[in-house]
C-alpha cells in the first residue's frame, strides 16, 4: 500500500510555486492527483498517485512524504488524524504481571497510542471522515487480546492514569501546595507510603506554581500523583527526565513492583533504565509525522538490540541505520594541551558546601559530569564560568564559557530563524557550523516554527545548537539528553565529539543517561556527598575509572552485552554482580 502525507507545519504554499501540483505527471496527464485544498495546501489522492516521487523532490520544504508500506498493514490501521495526515498502525497490549515498554523515535505515535489505550482518543480505524465509535472499535477487535481492554474502556470499567511527559509544564497547569495536590489525587490511601518510597517529604510544603521546585522534584511529584491513584492501567511517559541515576533506579524499581499487580506501560529513552525496568518492549518504527507501526512485544534485551541494529528480522525490514555501540578509543590526555587547572575550591552556601579537588581540563576533550542531583554540579560549573566566586581558592583564568542550562524554556518570542539570526548568525554563515551543527540537528525543518510551539525534544536541539554556536573556550552543557529520543541522543553525542575534536574547544556535559555519558565523554568528574547538604567533586578521571568510582557509589554493576557491546545493568546479587563487585569492576573494561 502507498500512503501520501503532507507535513502541514512544513508546507508553506505562500512561499512556493506549488511545484508539487505543477510537476506531478498525473496532474499533467489531466487527472486530479494533487489539488489545492481550501487552506491553499495540496491535497494528494492516494488512489491516483503512482508513487513516482517527483513531488517529494520538487517541494522546497520537504513537506511531502509518499511512502510504500507492506500490504498487510492495511488491515491494521488503528487511527488516522485526517486526509494526508499521520497514521498509527497496531497498538501495544497492556498485560498484568509484565512491565511493558515502548521504544521508538519521537513523532511516531507513542503518545497517540497511549491516548487511544487510555480512552482519551477513540480510534477511527482510518475512517477519519466519520465520527468514531466504540461499537466499531469493539467489532474490529473482537476475538483479539485488546477486545476486553476496549470493552472495559467503553463501559467505563477500566480506569487509567497517565504520568505526562513534560513535567516542567506542570507549574503552569497545577496550582497549590504539593501536599494538597497529592492528597486530592489519593484514592488508594497510600499517601504516606508513596511519599516515603519516593523520598519527597521535603517538597510537600512547597507550592507548585512558585517555581522553587526543581525538574527532578517535579518528576517525582508527578510520578507520585500517578502511583497514588488506584487504577487498572498506568502509563508513564518518560518517567526519568531530570532524575539522577539513584532516582532513576529507585523509580524503575517502584514501577516494576507496581507492574506485578497492575497493568503498566512505559515510554522511556534512557536505554539502561528501560533495560532494567521492563520485561517486554514494543519497538515502534515509522517516519516522524507520517506514520508509526507498533511491533509485537519482544524481551527487553532483544528489543533494545534490535532497535540498535535498525533491522526487524521477523518482518525483514530495515527501519533505521545501525547504531554501533563501539567504545571510542581513550584519548591520551597527558598529550593534550591544558586549558584550565584548578586547585581545592570551596563554595559554602548557608545550607550547602561544595569541595572541589584539584583538576585539569584539556583542550579538545569532553568531560562528563556525573553524580546525584543537588550535589553542586551546577555550582561547580558556575564557578568555572566566573558566575559564582569560590568561598576559598581562586579561579585565575579568564575563559569564555557558553552554557546550556538544564531547564530550557522558549523565552524568545518569534521563530527559530529569528532567534538564531539575533543570537548566533554564525550558524548560517560558517560552513563548519553548518556541516557539524545545523545539518546533524536537522534545524532546517525547525527554522520557520515559532519557538514556543516546539516540542521538548525540538527545543532541546535548538538549545544545544545555540550553545555550540557561541564563541567560547568551553561549552557547558547541562542535561542535553532530556526529551531526546535514543537515536537523537546518539546523534547529539556524535555531533558534540566532532565539534570538540575539530574545533579544539572543550566541553563539560552533565547527564544522567549512562549510555549517553559513555558515548560522549573522554574523562569524568565524579560528584559524591549528601544531596542538598554537602558535595565533593573529584577527577577528571579516565572514563573507565570515573565510571567505576561513580557506579560504586550507586552500588550497581554494568556488563557489556555480548552482541551489541552496549552496557547492561547486572541484576542485584546475580553471579555477575557479585563477581564484579568482588573484583572492584563496577564498569566493564573497554
Ligand atoms: P510521539 O509520542 O511518538 O512523539 P505523537 O503520538 O505525539 O508522537 O504524534 C505522532 C504524530 O501524530 C505527530 O508527529 C503529529 O504529526 C501527529 N498528531 C498528533 N496529534 C495530532 C492531532 N491532534 N491532529 C493531527 N495530527 C496529530
Ligand atoms: P546540582 O547541579 O548538582 O543539582 P546545584 O549546584 O544546583 O546542584 O546545587 C547544590 C546545592 O546548593 C542545592 O542544595 C542548592 O539548593 C544549593 N544552592 C545552589 N545555589 C545556591 C544559592 N545561590 N544560594 C543558596 N543555596 C544554593
Ligand atoms: Fe504525483 Fe504521486 Fe508522483 Fe507526487 S508521487 S508527483 S502525487 S504521482
Short account of what is shown:
By secondary structure, this protein is an alpha/beta fold. It has four domains: 67 residues, Alpha-Beta Plaits (2-Layer Sandwich); 242 residues, Rossmann fold (3-Layer(aba) Sandwich), CATH 3.40.50.300; 206 residues, P-loop containing nucleotide triphosphate hydrolases (Rossmann fold); 36 residues, no CATH class.
Keywords:
single chain, 590 residues, alpha/beta, Alpha-Beta Plaits, Rossmann fold, nine-stranded mixed β-sheet, eight-stranded mixed β-sheet, binds adenosine-5'-diphosphate, binds iron/sulfur cluster
Characterization of the model:
The protein contains 22 helices and 27 strands. The strands form seven sheets. Strands 5, 6, 7, 8, 9, 10, 11, 12 and 13 form a nine-stranded mixed sheet that branches. An eight-stranded mixed sheet has the order 17-18-25-24-20-23-22-21, sandwiched between helices. The protein has a two-stranded antiparallel ribbon with strand order 1-4. It is globular. α19 runs parallel beside α20. The mean pLDDT is 90. The chain folds into four domains: 2-68, Alpha-Beta Plaits (2-Layer Sandwich); 73-314, P-loop containing nucleotide triphosphate hydrolases (Rossmann fold, 3-Layer(aba) Sandwich); 337-542, Rossmann fold (3-Layer(aba) Sandwich); 555-590, no CATH class. 44% of the residues are buried. The chain is α/β, with parallel strands linked by helices and 590 residues long. It starts with a strand and ends in an 8-residue tail after the last helix. Iron/sulfur cluster is lined by residues 24-26, 33-34, 44, 49-55, 66.
Amino acid at each position: 500500500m502507498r500512503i501520501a502525507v503532507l507535513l502541514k507545519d512544513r508546507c508553506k504554499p505562500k512561499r512556493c510555486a506549488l511545484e508539487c501540483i505543477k510537476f506531478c505527471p498525473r496532474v499533467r496527464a489531466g487527472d486530479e492527483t494533487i489539488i489545492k485544498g481550501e487552506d491553499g495546501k495540496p491535497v494528494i489522492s492516494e488512489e491516483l498517485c503512482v508513487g513516482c516521487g517527483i513531488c517529494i523532490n520538487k517541494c522546497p520544504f520537504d513537506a511531502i512524504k509518499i511512502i510504500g508500506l507492506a500490504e498487510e498493514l492495511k488491515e491494521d490501521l488503528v487511527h488516522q488524524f485526517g486526509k494526508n495526515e499521520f497514521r498509527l498502525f497496531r497498538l501495544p497490549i497492556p498485560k498484568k504481571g509484565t512491565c511493558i515498554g515502548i521504544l521508538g523515535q519521537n513523532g511516531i505515535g507513542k503518545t497517540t497510542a497511549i491516548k487511544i489505550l487510555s480512552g482519551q482518543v477513540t480510534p477511527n480505524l482510518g475512517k477519519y471522515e466519520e465520527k468514531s465509535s466504540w461499537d466499531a472499535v469493539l467489532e474490529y477487535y473482537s476475538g483479539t487480546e485488546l477486545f476486553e481492554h476496549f470493552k472495559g474502556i467503553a463501559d467505563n470499567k477500566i480506569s487509567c492514569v497517565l504520568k505526562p511527559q513534560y513535567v516542567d509544564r506542570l507549574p503552569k497547569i497545577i496550582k497549590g501546595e504539593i501536599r494538597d495536590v497529592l492528597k486530592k489525587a489519593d484514592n488508594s490511601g497510600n499517601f504516606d507510603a508513596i511519599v516515603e518510597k519516593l523520598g519527597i517529604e521535603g517538597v510537600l510544603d512547597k507550592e507548585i506554581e512558585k517555581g522553587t521546585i526543581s525538574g527532578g522534584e517535579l518528576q517525582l511529584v508527578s510520578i507520585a500523583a500517578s502511583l497514588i491513584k488506584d487504577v487498572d492501567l498506568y502509563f508513564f511517559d518518560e518517567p526519568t527526565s531530570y532524575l539522577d541515576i539513584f532516582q532513576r533506579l529507585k523509580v524503575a524499581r517502584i514501577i516494576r513492583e507496581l507492574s506485578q499487580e497492575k497493568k503498566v506501560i512505559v515510554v522511556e529513552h534512557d536505554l539502561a533504565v528501560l533495560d532494567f525496568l521492563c520485561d517486554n518492549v514494543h519497538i515502534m518504527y515509522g517516519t516522524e509525522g507520517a506514520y508509526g507501526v507498533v511491533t509485537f512485544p519482544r524481551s527487553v534485551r532483544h528489543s533494545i538490540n534490535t532497535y540498535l541494529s535498525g533491522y526487524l528480522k521477523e518482518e525483514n525490514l530495515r527501519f533505521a541505520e545501525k547504531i554501533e555501540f563501539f567504545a571510542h578509543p581513550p584519548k591520551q590526555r597527558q598529550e593534550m594541551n591544558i586549558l584550565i587547572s584548578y586547585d581545592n575550591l570551596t563554595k559554602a552556601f548557608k545550607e550547602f558546601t561544595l569541595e572541589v579537588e584539584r583538576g585539569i581540563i584539556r583542550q579538545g576533550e569532553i568531560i562528563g559530569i556525573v553524580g546525584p542531583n543537588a550535589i553542586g554540579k551546577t555550582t561547580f560549573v558556575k564557578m568555572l564560568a566566573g558566575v559564582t566566586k569560590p568561598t576559598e581558592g581562586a579561579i585565575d583564568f579568564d575563559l569564555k564559557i557558553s552554557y546550556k542550562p538544564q531547564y530550557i524554556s522558549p523565552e524568545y518570542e518569534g521563530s527559530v530563524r529569528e532567534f538564531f539570526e539575533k543570537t548566533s548568525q554564525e550558524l548560517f554563515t560558517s560552513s563548519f557550523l553548518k556541516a557539524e551543527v545545523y545539518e546533524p540537528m536537522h534545524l532546517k525543518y525547525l527554522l520557520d516554527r515559532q519557538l514556543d510551539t516546539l516540542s521538548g525534544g525540538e527545543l532541546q536541539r535548538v538549545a544545544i545548537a545555540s550553545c555550540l554556536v557561541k564563541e567560547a573556550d568551553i561549552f557547558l552543557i547541562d542535561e542535553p539528553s532530556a526529551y531526546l529520543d535514543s537515536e537523537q541522543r546518539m546523534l547529539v553525542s556524535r555531533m558534540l565529539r566532532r565539534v570538540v575534536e575539530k574545533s579544539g574547544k572543550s566541553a563539560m556535559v552533565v547527564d544522567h543517561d549512562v549510555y549517553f555519558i559513555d558515548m560522549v565523554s573522554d574523562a569524568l568528574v565524579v560528584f559524591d556527598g549528601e544531596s542538598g547538604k554537602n558535595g565533593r567533586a573529584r577527577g577528571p578521571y579516565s572514563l573507565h575509572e570515573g565510571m567505576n568510582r561513580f557506579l560504586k557509589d550507586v552500588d550497581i554493576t554494568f556488563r557489556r552485552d555480548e552482541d551489541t557491546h552496549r552496557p547492561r545493568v547486572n541484576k542485584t546479587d546475580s553471579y555477575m554482580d557479585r563477581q564484579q563487585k568482588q573484583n572492584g569492576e563496577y564498569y566493564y573494561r573497554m
